[in-house]
Amino acid sequence: MEKSDNSQTGPQISVVVPFYNEEANVEELYRRLKKVLDKLKRTYELIFIDDGSTDKTPEILQKIYEKDELVKIIRLRKNFGQTAALQAGFDFAQGEIIISMDGDLQHDPEDIPLFLAKMNEGYDVVSGWRKKRVDNLFLRRIPSLVANRIMKWLSGVEIHDFGTTFKAYKKEVIKKVHLYGELHRFIPALTSRTGVKITEIPIKNVVRQRGKSKYGLSRVRRVFFDLITVKFIISFIDRPLQFFGLIGVIFGSIGFAIAATLTIGFYFFGWSIRENLGNLILSVFLMMMGLQLVMTGLLAEILSRVYFATHKVKIYSVEKILSREKPPAEFWN
Ligand code: UDP
Ligand code: MG
After folding, report:
1. 283: which of 51, 85, 191, 258 fits an S-S bond (Cβ 3.0–4.6 Å)?
2. Which ligand sits closest to the CA of 141?
């Protein structure tokens, strides 16, 4: 589809990197990326997103842009967070294969050829797997282990490490994903809905040498709620009524059964209404709950349609773009 019209054709590879106050890392990452990519003999572009940095990151990026025509910079108006920054990069990218990675040197550009080799085998998504993790045990590895297990179980995607951003995607796959919240961690799970082929490769996990991590324990809470969202999206977003409706019908039915029993009891067996007041209230309560839930399901059903119709809404806002080529048309949608 993309190839049939005569719009500009993209490079073979796009590398997307978000930076938030990474002045100590930008230069070196850029240098190492160039070294690896130039050896590949494939066309590529580097898309660097400045997620509202307040240190010297913007100046450094500007300098890199000025001397390298393969570099494109997107500067966001404020700090929108890693997910939004990545989404901006994905929207901008035009490569056939799109690779995302962190800008803090925790991901080694030397691993990129491994991703490409796997993609060549015909996968749609190749996910990095921090097989030997060096991160803090309690703050990082244990919460991450739990989240990954749940994610694997919910999504049925057989990979170990959902959390790392170091991943490669076919353009068609990533262009269909619309991120919000902390959902960048769950892209493989989100794409699994559409039946893409996903695999993983071990990557190096290195300790951050310079600059600070942008996350603390609050990540656990955010990831927890996004897990619920992801489960909902995978299973019910196109049929929320199935979800709410089912619970509603169960509640409603129990309530109705109790009410019916009581009615028969009152009329035919002379049960005392006063003694059964509790049951009566319970049955009315359950039936009301059931009705409410079905109504909620219907509302969600309508909302999800609106969501699908308007999902082009952007979760970020661009301050300026440095690029020698025009961004793809869909970038402005
Ligand atoms: N990042 C970003 N915006 C943010 C937070 C982080 O663009 O609001 C970038 C950050 O500069 C880095 C990557 O996302 O390139 C991963 O962030 P970090 O290293 O803090 O996460 P961790 O490795 O601790 O999970
Ligand atoms: Mg990091």
Report:
1. 258
2. 1
Give dist(CA 305, CA 311) in Å, integer.
Answer: 10
CATH code 3.60.15.10 for 13-235: no
Number of C-beta neighbours around residue 267 at 10 A: 9
Nearest to 114, CA basis, from 129, 104, 95, 134? 129
Render pLDDT for 226-247 as a digit per residue (tens, 0 to 9). 788 788 777 777 778 888 889 9
Helix (H) or strand (E) run with residue 73 in it = strand 71-76
The closest-lying atom of ligand 1 relative to the alpha carbon of residue 106 is 23
Query: In 3D, which of 113, 119, 100, 108 has the Cα closest to residue 184?
Result: 100
Delimit the domains of the chain by residue range: 13-235, 240-310
Pocket test residue of 134, 214, 223 for ligand 1, highest count of atoms within 8 A of CB: 214
Total-model pTM = 0.81
As a whole number of angstroms, the distance between CA 186 and CA 179 comes to 9
